[in-house]
Write a structure and sequence with these properties.
Order of helices and strands: HHHHEHEEEH
Number of helices: 6
Structural class: alpha+beta
Helix content: 40-55%
Distance between the termini: 44 Å
Amino acid sequence: MGSCCTKKDNSVLQKEAEEIIAIAGKDKTITILQEIQKKKGYISESLLREISCLTKIPVSDFYGVATFYSQFRFTPLGKHVIKLCNGTACFVSGADALYETLCDFLKIKSGETTNDGLFSLETAACLGCCSLAPVVMIGERVYGKQTPDSIRELLNSIIKADSSGAKS
């Protein structure tokens, strides 16, 4: 494919776009968005514009689809993704207090990432660990019976481990 939207110094971006189109197909909007997110971890605006140029699909069409479906995000996830369970058992056991503590401690809300890129916060309808309510999941690890104090302790230990280079 010839040069499109990118300048000569952006050939890496064009190559990435061409690779995604080769995998997803030229007219598969959702599949293209899924491939971008799979490759980058989020929908990269510069990559989306390049793909738009190469496929002749308007950027607005991509954004219309990406903003409709909750699976797509426009910012990178943090190194540690925190999922707070909001299911009935967790809610009645204090998930709302945990949410307030997380928001206050991290200075973000659900769907956001801390400025340092260390944490992202999400809420989940149910994590399937009702007997451990209230529950948070950080990465693939489940932490049950959480309290505002224990969640602050947990986050501080992750921050400490991260700053010392240890694996959390």
